[in-house]
Amino acid sequence: MATAGEARAWAREALRGIGDSLYTPFCGRDGDDIDWDAYRSLVRYCVGALGHQMLWCTSGIAEFWSLTLDERKRLLEVAIEEGRRADPDVVIQACTAATSAKDCVDLTLHAQQAGADIAYIQTPMMEAHGGEGVLRFFAYVASRTDLALGMFNSPSSGYVLTPAEGARIYDEVPAVCATKEGAFRPGSSRLLHRLAPDLVIWECDKTVYRAGWLRDGIVCPAQLGTSGYLFETPQRRLFSEYWDLVYDGKLVEAMEYARHSGLDQFDLDIGSWWTCYPGRSDYFTHWGGAFKYAASLLGLPVGDHPDSRPPQALLPPEAKAQIEEAYLRLGLIDARRPTELVVPQA
Questions:
Q1: What are the CA-CA distances from residue 164 to residues 129, 130, 167, 173 (Å)?
Q2: Cβ neighbours of residue 147 closer than 8 Å, sequence gap 6 or more
Q3: Which of 329, 334, 268 is nearest to 298 (CA)?
Q4: Do residues 316 and 293 lie in contact, with contact meaning Cβ atoms separated by under 8 Å?
């Protein structure tokens, strides 16, 4: 765990590798319950079988907006328990976003006490008075906790911080050490780095890594919150091998690998189902049902209620068909037989 005072030095060294954003496997009527055995298997698979270095817990893919505070706390506890059993050095990142600052403090204090390494706070989704309001929110949480904090700048919040606003939060709240820039606006990330050069930045637009931004120190050597476990299996470590090349500075080789392995084509084939609901195509979402359907194709357990909780919609058949075809083309699944993954046992 990194305390607020240690946060910035810690982040520059610890935030490396692949960080898996975990889905929540639901079960029971309308998905009212959580399949804890399935969740434990997912954690063991990511950290044990795939060897990924970080976990990103109770965030967008986990559908945090649909979870109770108690569920979010228990999901984090289980991830820490299973993750550290598989790898004592795994970095645990907790999303403690909430519309209420008091709830955010409650979740962040719990993350601190449970042993998480850092808590990320997504820009509040309701009534955020721009950067000034978000700064007040971060200052409120930081004054009541002692844990490394990160910003999570996602368009799903409805408001995206400007580079100047993000830099001001970094300047005025010492616990803030990192940011997940999820708005796909790399020009803003470059400016944010110029304004706050020691802030650890992850840019969701993957093209910046091919442009040498890691070499230039603009972004960090990590995928802080991806669904990396949906891009590879222990038998075909496509995602890990690609990013190892990028982190080693072998950019030409990385681009060739992505082209020949099918990773680039997969991004095109999968379409926008993970992040776009057609009925509201201008809104960036984390469609839990789409992520879980992809996971089920790879043989991962998703619970007996594989859809999202409300207010998300049910994943339509055309989405499932397109996702399955993308995996068949990539070669991670075989139409002739179901995929069987080896998940480390508890």
A1: 15, 11, 5, 14
A2: 1, 2, 3, 4, 7, 108, 111, 112, 116, 118, 119, 175
A3: 334
A4: no
Looking at residue 121, what is its pLDDT?
A: 97
**Which pTM value belongs to this model?**
0.94
Q: Left if phi > 0, otherwise alpha if psi is -120 to 50, otherwise beta: which for 303? A: left
- Please state the φ and ψ torsions of residue 219, each to the nearest 5 degrees: -120, 165
For helices 317-330 and 288-297, angle between their N-to-C axes, nearest 10 degrees: 40
SS3 148: strand
Angstrom distance (rounded) from CA 131 to CA 119: 19
Q: Is residue 176 within 8 Å of residue 170, measured between CB atoms?
A: yes
For 6-232, which CATH class?
Answer: alpha beta
CB-neighbour burial class of residue 127 (10 A; exposed 0-12, middle 13-18, buried 19+)? exposed
Query: Is residue 2 a contact partner of residue 174, using CB atoms and an 8 Å limit?
Result: no
pLDDT of residue 190: 95
d(C-alpha 334, C-alpha 327), whole Å: 9
Which helix (H) or strand (E) is 274 found in, with range?
none
Instruction: Please give the average pLDDT of every successive group of 10 residues along the chain, which has 346 residues.
Output: 90 96 97 98 98 97 97 98 98 97 98 98 94 97 98 92 98 98 90 97 94 96 95 97 97 98 97 96 95 98 97 97 97 74 61
Q: How far is Cα 119 from Cα 111, in angstroms, rounded to an integer? A: 7
* Residue spans per domain, the chain: 6-232
